[in-house]
Amino acid sequence: MATLIDGKKISAEIKEELKEKVAKLKEEGTEISLAVIQVGNDPASSVYVGNKKKACEFIGIKSVAYELPEETTEKELLDIIDELNGREDINGILVQLPLPAHINEDKVIEAIDSSKDVDGFHPMSVGALSIGKPGFVSCTPAGIIQLLKRSNIEIAGKECVIVGRSNIVGKPMAMLLLRENGTVTVAHSKTKDLKEVTKRADILVVAVGKPKFITADYVKEGAVVIDVGIHRNENNKLCGDVDFDSVEPKASAITPVPGGVGPMTIAMLMYNCVNGRM
Question: Where in the chain are the domains?
């Protein structure tokens, strides 16, 4: 039986720590403010934005919301970002993705002042991470590091395999595991003999975007398995990229879906807002 890595519990611990820190900052006369911009009303985005606002409220961060119509032009959005960049009372700027098709996401991400890039997506943040300089770290990979550390799972010297090479999870995850002295392999859709690669992993991080893709025959006995995926199965139940029922008996520790990696992403976004660049 694998140990369940409880993301709900660990994210609640982080939020409590941040709440204390924010209360102290307020006593010293400093208020933390996050600007959240949503364009259009994509249902999943609306849920995420709602959760971010709730987290801000709990921790004591002031949340400034911009809910813009679908037809907002790229220029209008860039003008708002420009204004927020110049506001001293705003610590972090978050633009909820995906954006409508007529808006260039890269242009929008690059327009955010890198000192307010709490999502960790700006090229300056990514570059800083790759050369070991302080900078904002993408929230999901940063959350996974916290899950491992706070579950007393040693990373140094371990064989770490990441399945998926996205800019938001796979690539920054590789950098963070290297920073923690893991030995890192990044596998992807073009990897030959994927099962042979993943079976070497002491720590397996799965971010492929395919429901229940990783089954027991991809996993080494006693591995730690981190599932980043979130999908709805044929019965409309949430599931991940890992076939939990077949993998769990083989793993030493595993994240469930829901309740594993998901809650950590928002906790680390709050962490970035409060602590600035790491």
Answer: 30-113, 139-261
